[in-house]
Amino acid sequence: MTKINLLPEERIDQLYKEDIQIIQSSKVFSFSLDAVLLANFPNIPKQGKIVDLCAGNGAVGLFIAKKTQASIEQIEIQEKLADMGRRSILLNHLENQVTMHHLDLKDTLKIIPSDSCDLVLCNPPYFKEAPAKKTNPNEHLALARHEITTNLDEVCQKASQLLKMKGHFALVHRPERLLDILETLKKYRLAPKKIQFIYPKKGKEANILLVEAIKDGKNDGLKILPPVIVYSQDNEYLSPVKEMLYGE
C-alpha cells in the first residue's frame, strides 16, 4: 500500500463508483458535484491525450482515468492544489497515466503541443472578477471561484489551441453565463454540440450547465439533453447522480 503523507487539515475522500481516493483540505477548494458531472458528461476517448484545465486538486482527471488508456495532463496554477493532486495520483497508482503540472494556464502550450489533444475538460472559475471587498477572503477559494488569473475567453482559446481538428471540449459552468459561453466558443472555432442543465431540485432553477463542443465542427446538430435533477424533496440523491457517485 502506498504511504502518502497528509497535512493536519487534509483528509482522504472517495468516489465510490470509480474506487478513486482523493486528498482534500478544509483550507482550499474541494471537489464538488460539478467535477463528478463533468467527468461523466463527454464521451471519453479510449486512447490519445486528454487535458484537464483548471484542474484544482485533480478530481476530474482522476475520475475519468479508469475509463480510458489515454494519457491525462492536468494544469493547475495553485501550488498547494497541484501538490495535493500529485499525491492523489500516487495514492491511486496512476502515475503512469496522469500527470499534474503546477502551471499558469497561459503557459500550457509550453509543455503540451498545439493540435495534439483528443479531449479538453475544464471546471473553470465561474464568476467574473468581483470588487476586492466581494471576493472571498480565502485566496485559494477566490482563485477557484472568480476570474482572477484566467477567464472564459482564455480557457476557450487554450482549449481550441490544444485540440486536434474534431477534438472535443467539455465545460461545466453556470447557466447565467450560457450566452457568454456560446459566443466565446464560436470565437475560437468550437461548435457546441451538447448542452445539459442540472437542477438542484424539481421546481428550482438550473444551477449547473454542461457544454460539449467540437473544434471545427459544423454549426448544426446541437442537442439539448434531458435535465438532471440532483436531489429529491427529502434531500436524497436521485438517479443518475446516485449512479455517478456510488454506482447504484
Give a quick set of tags describing it.
alpha/beta; 248 residues; single chain
Calculate the mean pLDDT score and round it.
91
Described by its quaternary structure, the protein is: single chain
How many DSSP E strands?
A: 11
- Helix segment count? 7
Structure description:
- The chain is of the alpha/beta class.
- It has 7 helices and 11 strands.
- It has helices spanning 33-39, 59-64, 79-91, 139-145, 152-162, 178-187, 241-246; strands spanning 10-15, 20-25, 49-53, 71-76, 98-102, 117-122, 163-173, 190-199, 208-215, 223-224, 228-229.
- The strands form 2 sheets. Strands 3, 4, 5, 6, 7, 8, 9, 10 and 11 form a 9-stranded mixed beta sheet that branches. A two-stranded antiparallel ribbon has the order 1-2.
- β3 (49-53), α2 and β4 form a beta-alpha-beta unit.
- α5 (152-162) runs parallel beside α6.
- Residues 138-147 have low confidence and may be disordered.
Write the layout of secondary structure elements.
Layout: E1 10-15, E2 20-25, H1 33-39, E3 49-53, H2 59-64, E4 71-76, H3 79-91, E5 98-102, E6 117-122, H4 139-145, H5 152-162, E7 163-173, H6 178-187, E8 190-199, E9 208-215, E10 223-224, E11 228-229, H7 241-246
Parallel strand pairs: 3-4, 3-6, 4-5, 6-7, 8-10, 8-11
Antiparallel strand pairs: 1-2, 7-9, 8-9
